[in-house]
Amino acid sequence: MSGWAVGDMPTLTSYLADPRPAVRLRAVMAAGTSPSVDDLELLVEQCAVEPDLQVREMLTWALIRLPAAVVVPRLLRELDRPEAQARSQALHTLSKTHETAVYPQVVALLGDDDPGVVRTAWRAAVVLVPSGSEESLARMLAVQLGQGDRETQLALSRALVGLGAGVVSPVLAGAASHRSEAVRAHASATEELLRDPDAGSALALERARREVALGRTRAAKG
Fold first, then answer.
1. DSSP for 73-138?
2. Which of helix, strand or coil describes residue 186?
3. What is the DSSP secondary-structure string of 128-181?
4. Cα atoms in the Cβ-side hemisphere of radius 13 Å centred on 9
5. Of 4, 25, 144, 205, which residue is 20 to 30 A from 134 by alpha carbon distance?
6. What's the pLDDT score for residue 204?
7. Largest Cα–Cα distance in the chain?
8. pTM of the model
9. What Rg do the C-alpha atoms of the chain give, in angstroms?
10. What is the mean pLDDT of the segment spanning 49-54?
């Protein structure tokens, strides 16, 4: 039985419909504190429409407090929804379950039409990649080097770095000789981030672009 009162008392449904983020946040926190499978549908549905980032994070927390056996299959269904936020939030929550069995479904969204979903898929894939598949994932991610805006490129760099130097360095070395200046610059910026995690800013990407333009990369020298 859900921990939410019935009758004349407000329900989880009514709290989640409240226009005040603080009210919705407290409601989701209460649901997660006393987890009940009865709340699963409401929590998942709210993920698709919740406008507040903090509330969405609390929704993820509340969902992973429920048994994985019921949560994971329900989240996988969200990956087929037309709403980008539903797909993105499901990916984010799946990454918190650490269920590597869902990796194939996560990888399938690396080619999603929505940039935000793709960025979330990158992060989730790095978390959920099974042992032995890291190099394959690194190659799949590297195909996206040089594409997108600064935020997208930084997100990809961080995802690649998350796979570890031993996996990523050979891929970046190959990208350093790519014919595209944008790819070479992005690979150079990712190498810098690999050496110094604190360098993960738009400034690092700009610096790498300048160095590529000035012929200071290994590819330009060779």
1. HHHHHHTT-S-HHHHHHHHHHHHHHT-GGGHHHHHGGGG-SSHHHHHHHHHHHHHHPPTT-HHHHH
2. helix
3. HPPTT-HHHHHHHHHTTTT-S-HHHHHHHHHHHHHT-HHHHHHHHHHHTT-S-H
4. 6
5. 205
6. 57
7. 76
8. 0.85
9. 21
10. 98
